[in-house]
């Protein structure tokens, strides 16, 4: 019987030992598929606006954010891409004596340029401004930083092992048995219904479960994966910009760099800009056009911080095979590679571990209770038989 195979033992004990983790990582992943709209729903005053009209350019928001007292230096700008969205600007606060540099997000009305509010980006909590960030960090590293990333990566491989062992146990011995793999007998007992549902759910979402666990584990160990892929197809890194005398405060004007990017990529929309804090780091632009797989766009432009010239373009017209593979990992993991349908599918896949763990534990507990009850009944029969034998041995008739 399959219940006595090594495959079954591995599948069972992985579910028992790590079932809660599988459920939580799946649930957090399901929520993060729609992270931005959920965050906006939780924080409408911070992340939405009723203003309509011409949208201010990024350079105007850059100046306004830099002029706000106590906000620090602009680190990153994410322009709105749809009506009702706001400018999201990440700032670096200036460290004071006895405190370290902190990062906060300031949001601005895209039409009026008014400051809407701020929140710290490294604060965790269940309050609406910090809930989505907390869920993201839990999903990524269990709120434990680099050490937590290793824990998540190892647990991801264990989840993959659970999926694979479930697949082995599901494969029917005969070709005609495939129809029963996804069949649920609603007239059977509750335990049998849960067993059928567990098996059928795993079979239906098998491909997506394999996809999300494989891509999730590789994203944790991205540097190692990049080195491995580079053996077959070189994945180029962004060039290091050498420091030159007198360049520390000589960054190219922000408006000039934005204009150069707009001119060079006229068919794409700027979705995020990373501002260099020193002259050895470049301006980084994410650009989007209809049909892109990545949420921020499939094009990255790396601009020289002093001259403003294009250093690297990473897009579908420049990527080699290795860079294309690395680019696809996150869109496949989040479902954005296949548009709204893919995101919905990945959201449902994130809910699947919870249902698999719940139904699997139900079946295991019920069978365990059944075995324990059977052992008690057999023990009672043995005792009853022993008592009857003893009585028979002690009766006058038995002594003859």
Structure described in brief:
This protein is an alpha+beta fold and 400 residues long.
Topology, element by element:
Blueprint: H1 6-32, H2 35-42, H3 44-47, H4 58-67, E1 73-78, E2 87-92, E3 103-108, E4 115-120, H5 128-141, H6 145-170, H7 178-181, H8 190-204, H9 206-220, H10 222-232, H11 254-264, E5 269-274, E6 283-288, E7 299-303, E8 310-314, H12 321-334, H13 339-394, H14 396-399
Antiparallel strand pairs: 1-2, 1-5, 2-3, 3-4, 5-6, 6-7, 7-8
Structure, described:
It is a single chain. The protein is an alpha+beta fold. The chain has helices spanning 6-32, 35-42, 44-47, 58-67, 128-141, 145-170, 178-181, 190-204, 206-220, 222-232, 254-264, 321-334, 339-394, 396-399; strands at 73-78, 87-92, 103-108, 115-120, 269-274, 283-288, 299-303, 310-314. Strands 4-3-2-1-5-6-7-8 form an 8-stranded antiparallel β-sheet.
């Amino acid at each position: 019987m399959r219940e006595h195979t090594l495959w079954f033992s591995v599948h069972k004990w992985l579910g028992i030992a790590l079932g809660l983790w599988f459920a939580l990582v799946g649930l957090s992943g399901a929520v993060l598929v729609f992270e931005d709209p959920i965050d906006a729903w939780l924080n409408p005053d911070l992340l939405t606006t009723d203003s309509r009209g011409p949208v201010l350019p990024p350079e105007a928001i850059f100046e306004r954010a830099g002029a706000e007292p106590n906000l620090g230096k602009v680190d990153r700008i994410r322009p709105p891409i749809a009506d009702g969205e706001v400018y999201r600007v990440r700032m670096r606060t200036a460290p004071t004596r006895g405190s370290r540099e902190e990062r906060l997000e300031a949001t601005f009305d895209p039409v009026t340029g008014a400051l809407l509010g701020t929140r710290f980006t490294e604060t965790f909590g269940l309050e609406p401004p910090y809930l989505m960030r907390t869920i993201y960090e839990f999903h990524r590293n269990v709120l434990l930083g680099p050490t937590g990333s290793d824990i998540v990566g190892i647990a991801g491989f264990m989840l993959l092992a659970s999926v694979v062992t479930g697949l082995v146990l599901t494969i029917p011995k005969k070709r005609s048995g495939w129809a029963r793999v996804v069949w649920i007998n609603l007239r059977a007992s509750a335990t049998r219904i849960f067993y059928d549902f567990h098996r059928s759910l795993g079979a239906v979402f098998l491909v997506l479960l394999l996809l999300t666990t494989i891509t999730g584990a590789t994203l944790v160990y991205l540097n190692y994966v990049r080195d491995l892929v580079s053996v077959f197809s070189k994945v180029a890194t962004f060039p290091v910009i050498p420091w030159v005398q007198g360049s520390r405060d000589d960054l190219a004007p922000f408006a000039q760099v934005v204009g150069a990017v707009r001119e060079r990529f006229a068919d794409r929309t700027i979705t995020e800009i990373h501002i260099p804090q020193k002259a050895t780091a470049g301006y980084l632009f994410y650009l989007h056009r209809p049909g892109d797989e990545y949420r921020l766009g499939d094009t990255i432009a790396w601009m020289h911080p002093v001259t403003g010239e294009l250093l690297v373009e990473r897009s579908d017209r420049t990527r080699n095979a290795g860079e294309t593979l690395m680019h696809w990992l996150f869109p496949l993991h989040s479902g954005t590679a296949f548009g709204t349908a893919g995101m919905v599918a990945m959201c449902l896949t994130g809910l699947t571990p919870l249902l698999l763990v719940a139904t699997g534990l139900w079946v295991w507990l019920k069978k365990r209770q059944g075995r324990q009850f059977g052992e008690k009944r057999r023990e009672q029969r043995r005792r009853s038989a022993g008592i009857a034998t003893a009585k028979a041995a002690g009766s006058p008739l038995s002594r003859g």
